[in-house]
Amino acid sequence: MNAASAYYHRPFQSSSSSSTPNKNEKEGRTLLDLLRSRDKLIGKHDDDDDDDDETDILQLEHELISRLSSLNASVRRCGLFTNAERAQSYYKNASDRSSSAASDRTAADNGAEGGGGGGGTGSSKKRKRKKGGAGGTGNKSTGNGPSANSYGIYLDSHSNESFPGISSGEKCDLDEGLVLTAICRILGVTVGRKKKDGSDKVRGGASSYGLMCAALNVLSSLCDHAKDGMAPSLVVGDSTCASIEGDMVGSVGSPLLEALCDNILYSYYKNDDEMVKGLMGCFKACASVVSLLETRLSRADKTLQSLRDSTWLVLNNLNGLSAKQEELVTVQKAATVLLSTLALAGNSDGTPPAKLWSQSVTDGITLLRWAIHGFFPMPTDDGPNMNAEAKQHPTLWKDHESWTSIAKDVSAMDNEEVDLGNDPTDNHRSQALKSRIQCLTGYILSLVKMENYPLHRLNNLSSSTLSLPFDSLLDTSEILLSFPLAAEARFRSTKPRLRSTPVADGLLSPNAAMEISAEVRSCGHVLLDDTVNSCRGGSGALGKARRLVGMSVANLQSSCSTALVSVVVDGGRRGSSNMGSWIRGSIPLRIKSIQTFHSVAISLGSGSMA
Fold first, then answer.
1. What is the C-alpha to C-alpha distance for residues 502 and 511, in angstroms, rounded to an integer?
2. How far apart are alpha carbons 588 and 33 in whole angstroms?
């Protein structure tokens, strides 16, 4: 399978080719000084409630945002290090600090054992290895690389005093680490203890949306630069800088993702005008971190599960967010991309990413089928097997029931006026089902197209054995494509006074099903197009050529006018039918049908449509 083999990646500019001095030098120290000044003013403002302090806080945050924006432009162009010599010197200093810290710990352990006297039980016990994946401060969390403290990334201090281990002679040697320290401080990255007091200050420092988004942009750019530097086809020169940048992010990987997860929940629950910026920045930054670190996060199962749950929480409640529809679409896209990248991290059981990827596609298909059958049972859907599937996939079934409870909750409606003549939940349920179908379709497509995957991972996955559930994807596409005709058939067979009543064994009325049928069919076209394109040139699509041709031709005929179909099929002798007449008049669906026919014809090759 050549999925996403042509996915665009920006050219990578090697840092070794630059001979200019390091513009980021001392930038970390400056950022930390500004943050300390801001935090002092915030504490003073909370005590005195002085308007002058609030003005000073806004000025400091504006200065921080300006500096982070300039830093982001520099990182996107050449990373944290502008030349390989600086990167090697920085890594040498970090390695020396790591070796010195390890020697001190060994000496301390030997001294404790020697001073215990008489074989004390507590001193002779071996230290247990700390679990939790990448990012333990002071521990070598990414293979044999230095720890976060050795890199000059300090997460343990939340006071306004100087960070431990920073002396006047180390300001230049570890300033790149202080840049990450400042970013982590803005995002609320902590180790050992978190601020979870139930207030608005879920993030450390109570950063504004503008400051948080500026820090998220720098983090995303840094991860993308390091990720591109690991692709041999994109690197011109030495990749030392990108490798060290990746190790620096990896040293705080798990705490960083935990803080980003908290920021997602903070933005979601606050639900204000700036919410979309916060969610978009967090989702993109999380996807960049996961796609950079990959299996280095395999032991952080709890963190990844929390991130997954938070993302699905936002997707399941999209209709309840106070934002424009265009903004919600961008949030949905960023969230589905993040969910698709989680397969790259692996898990603590040692399951390879390729197997997790295939399982994720299957899970998305299963959730999509359950959503449709639970709300509007389709004649072609094998509904009686849902109970057996629920027993086989208890975790998925729990997620499905959680979404169903949200979709059935009348209080989740967006302050809509209640129409006493109709079921007040009918429109809410239809919009919830439409949103669920769009989210799950986007999730499956992000997996199939491997969006935001690093280039070297795309090549490895494409060359390995990937199990793509092609038949299940075609079945699901067919269900989505046939939804409008099934809805219209149920609408016509129901008495007018009962058309606003939910159908038997379902939660959606024929009227509501008719309202969302066009969007559902559009999702079916998109899913079928990308499924066929992912198997272009392979034997998978050719083995299903007859079915693919039949589906594309049937959808094309159902979108054309009755007069044209009757002339093409049997010379105009066939009588006209009103069934599906509204679909035939939809220009967007006709365009989708033509595009699907084109995708099938290109994928199968010449002679297959005869």
1. 9
2. 55
